[in-house]
Design goal:
Blueprint (H helix, E strand, L loop, with lengths): L12 E3 L6 E3 L12 H20 L3 H11 L1
Antiparallel strand pairs: 1-2
The structure holds zinc ion (ZN).
Length: about 70
């Protein structure tokens, strides 16, 4: 009569949203839902790049002209 109470052996798999690698779901994985720090950072960089592109679309020529007058 031995009851085994320990770690659950159920393995949950998930797919990394960045590189589609199958990874084992772990509660203590700091990069969730990504497979690694690299994938997490690459996603983050993609976000900031998108932001910069939007800012680039602002009409800078108008600001430039104004700045020139003050000079
Ligand atoms: Zn990945």
């Amino acid at each position: 009569m031995s009851e085994q109470q320990g770690k659950p052996s159920k393995i949950i798999w998930q797919t990394c949203p960045n590189c589609q690698t199958k990874i084992q779901y772990r509660k203590d994985n700091p990069f969730r839902p990504f497979c690694s720090e690299r994938c997490k950072n690459s996603d983050f960089l993609g976000w900031t790049e998108e932001k910069h592109r939007i800012e680039d679309k602002l009409p800078f020529s108008e600001l430039d002209a104004d700045f020139d007058e003050h000079h």
